[in-house]
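Input for the complex:
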Amino acid sequence: KQEVTQIPAALSVPEGENLVLNCSFTDSAIYNLQWFRQDPGKGLTSLLLIQSSQREQTSGRLNASLDKSSGRSTLYIAASQPGDSATYLCAVREGTTSGTYKYIFGTGTRLKVLA
Amino acid sequence: ETGVTQTPRHLVMGMTNKKSLKCEQHLGHNAMYWYKQSAKKPLELMFVYSLEERVENNSVPSRFSPECPNSSHLFLHLHTLQPEDSALYLCASSRTGTGVSPLHFGNGTRLTVT
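Predicted:
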């Protein structure tokens, strides 16, 4: 049974710091991995999606990497800003074909960036 | 209007009530999902519809009944709920088939069962 773990559960950093959020999963048979951001009381916003054949994806100050064989992904945030404060979740899409729909989520890392 | 829209945003209902949650997507997607988010627990997949056909039913109690009349609309019918069903219910959509298709979420319905 696929399990997704995110460490740390909470993180508080001063503005301007570069930081790394971690996501690990137990079954390497995944179709893709997605990182999301969730603001309080809101839905999830997709940040980056990495296909199982890819090693990393970048968008602005965000960079996500995937090491499928070791069951790990990291989300790197450069030059953090107070507006980055949110909960960050990762999710793996199970299976190895496009015909699967099951995304398994971690419990998230709650990030606070201090001004 | 674009994206995924959920109504109502908040719902309070008694255990004997019947209510429905609505989700609408304007992204041209053909797969839609219901997730439950409870405090300190990972998002739990409830149901998935692909091309209006239910393809996942994740051992959800029968007091939750989904309906997908077309690829743009998804409903979750609720009846005789329990207090532990209080949670944020999130709808999402994606495109089926090969290729990159991220999940897109609505803002959720905050449900309180009294």
